[in-house]
TrEMBL record:
Protein name according to UniProt: N-acetyl-gamma-glutamyl-phosphate reductase
Enzyme class: oxidoreductase
Gene Ontology biological-process entries: L-arginine biosynthetic process
Catalytic activity: N-acetyl-L-glutamate 5-semialdehyde + phosphate + NADP(+) = N-acetyl-L-glutamyl 5-phosphate + NADPH + H(+)
Principal place of residence: cytoplasm
Recorded superkingdom: Bacteria
GO CC entries: cytoplasm
Annotated CDD domains: AGPR_C_ARG5_6_like (cd23936), AGPR_N_ARG5_6_like (cd24149)
Provenance organism: Pseudoxanthomonas taiwanensis
SMART domains found in the cross-reference section: Semialdhyde_dh
């Protein structure tokens, strides 16, 4: 018999928490131990998330109560800056618990493993504190990584996200009224994902985020100045070779569309365009911010850390590609 692991989600009312509940419900070796929410306290999970058919209810759980649940895996799906009391309690009482943090709180913490499964492969198994990369940051890193050694300067990354990226706490950036017929630029220098990608890749990147009226999905258009001249076919072959064994990265010919990635679990990278002279390359990546940008990536990390099949509970991606 395969072992079943118990898993709890702190902040399960939110967009990413809901996606995680769906993935856990489909997982043959994970069982929901608790889901926390202050607003939905006492309500049945199944009434909010039809993918889950058990009897569990949302609970308002503080740090001690989370520890008391004794789950083997805990996912933190709280807004940035909120998880410290929970992590401190888990560190003190349950250091062997696998904790995956979806927020930015531990992405610059050397004591935590930065879990972008494709870069690099092979170091995640057995980790117990995993920081899940940002959604834009995932798209930027996967788009830039194959060209890293050829960069002549900072890549410029023009990112457009659906408004689910701004979470459920009301703000201008998730207000459909303000977003109608609009594109909202914000944090045009110094966004946390700019610092995150610069730190992870070891080269500075320049990132300009925008929010659009669609609900989910990111388009990341990356402009790269290169040290030598390249041709589009060579670039595409390089990306194909780098990601050949990656089930959640699809290299495609045309620039991918966000409408075709929404609800799907991987990344599409394509549109390889080279300016006259060969030293300016533009690449486009799309992903669903709630899936490969958050919940799906967390599930990859959990599976790898526990030694389970990496894609357990994650629907096939490349087979349904529109490449
Ligand atoms: N949305 C994305 O595309 C995305 C992508 C990658 C990473 N992330 C990161 O993932 C985390 C969750 O994002 P999300 O979009 O799912 O957020 P969200 O929709 O705003 O949900 C936040 C959750 O945290 C709970 N919560 C809020 N404030 C709290 C507090 N002070 N104490 C305890 N619980 C609190 C909320 O439930 P109650 O208010 O009912 O307690 C809710 O369940 C964030 O750190 C975000 O940056 C998000």
């Amino acid at each position: 018999m395969s072992k079943t692991y118990s898993i709890g989600i702190v902040g399960a009312r939110g967009h990413t928490g809901a996606e995680l509940i769906r993935l856990v419900a489909a997982h043959p070796q994970l069982e929901l131990a608790f889901v926390s929410s202050r607003e939905l306290d006492g309500q049945r999970v199944a009434d909010h998330n039809p993918a889950y058919t058990g009897d569990l209810r949302y609970e308002n759980l503080g740090p001690a109560a989370v520890v008391g649940k004794g789950a083997e895996v805990v996912v933190m799906a709280l807004p940035n800056g909120k998880c410290a009391p929970y992590v401190e309690a888990l560190d003190a009482a349950a250091p062997q618990t696998l904790v995956v943090d979806l927020s930015a709180d531990h992405r610059f913490d050397a004591g935590w493993y930065y879990g972008l499964p494709e870069i690099p492969r092979g170091r995640c198994q057995g980790q117990r504190r995993i920081s899940n990369p940002g959604c834009y940051a995932t798209a930027m890193q996967l788009a830039i990584w194959p060209m890293l050694e050829y960069l002549a300067g900072p890549p410029q990354c023009f990112g457009v996200s659906g408004y689910s990226g701004a979470g459920t706490t009301p703000s201008d950036r998730n207000n459909p009224e303000l977003l109608r017929d609009n594109l909202m630029p914000y944090s045009l220098v110094g966004h946390v994902h700019e610092r995150e990608v610069s730190a992870q890749l070891g080269v500075p990147v320049e990132f300009m985020p925008h929010v659009a009226p669609h609900f989910r999905g990111i388009t990341m258009t990356v402009n790269m100045w290169l040290t030598g001249a390249v041709k589009p076919d060579w670039v595409r072959a390089r990306y194909e070779q780098r990601y050949a064994g990656e089930p959640l990265v699809d290299v495609v010919e045309q620039a991918p569309w966000v409408s075709r990635i929404a609800g799907r679990h991987g990344v599409e990278i394509g549109g390889f365009s080279v300016a006259p002279g060969g030293k300016r390359l533009v690449v486009v990546a799309t992903l669903d911010n709630l899936l490969k940008g958050a919940a799906t990536q967390a599930m990859q990390n959990i599976n790898i850390a526990l030694g389970l099949p990496e894609l357990a509970s994650i629907p096939a991606f490349k087979e349904t590609s529109h490449g």
